[in-house]
Amino acid sequence: MEVDSDSRPPARRNARWAGLAGSLLLALASLPAQAGSAPTRIEVAVNGMVCAFCAQGIERKLRSLPATESVQVNLEQRLVLLTLRPGTTIEEAQLRSLIRNAGFDVRQIRRLPAAP
After folding, report:
1. pLDDT, position 52
2. Dist. CA 45–CA 33, nearest whole Å
3. Given 1, 15, 75, 95, which residue has the most CB atoms within 10 angstroms?
């Protein structure tokens, strides 16, 4: 014979589990769809980035973001290509602030089509 260690009435135990299951379903429904979604790419034109040390500083800052999948810096064109993890995003204001705090100016931010 199986002994139930939970002394609460069965109706209260079931209500608790139903509440937890409902909360889990709501949380899962609010997550962005990631299956099959391509990563977002953002190109940032940066003023003041003139050396490898500059590029490394920007790259390090951007890699610290949870949404970042990869960062590529083109010193010659003064461009940063940021690829975000599928289903994630970053606000332009946050991106501008992060680069300004690293000591550089943002000339332009462009969201690019997903890579093939």
Report:
1. 92
2. 29
3. 95
How many Cα neighbours within 13 Å face the side chain of 35?
0
pLDDT tens digits, 19-71? 544 454 344 444 444 444 677 999 999 999 999 998 999 999 999 999 999 99
Rounded to whole angstroms, how far apart are CA atoms 7 and 24?
Answer: 25
Length of the chain: 116
Burial 87-101 (b: 16+ CB within 10 A, else e): ebebeeeebeebbee
Residue 8 DSSP label:
S
Give the domains, in start order, of the chain with CATH numbers.
Answer: 41-112 (3.30.70.100)
Q: Which two tokens stand for residue 38?
A: 């391509």
pLDDT of the residue at 15 = 61
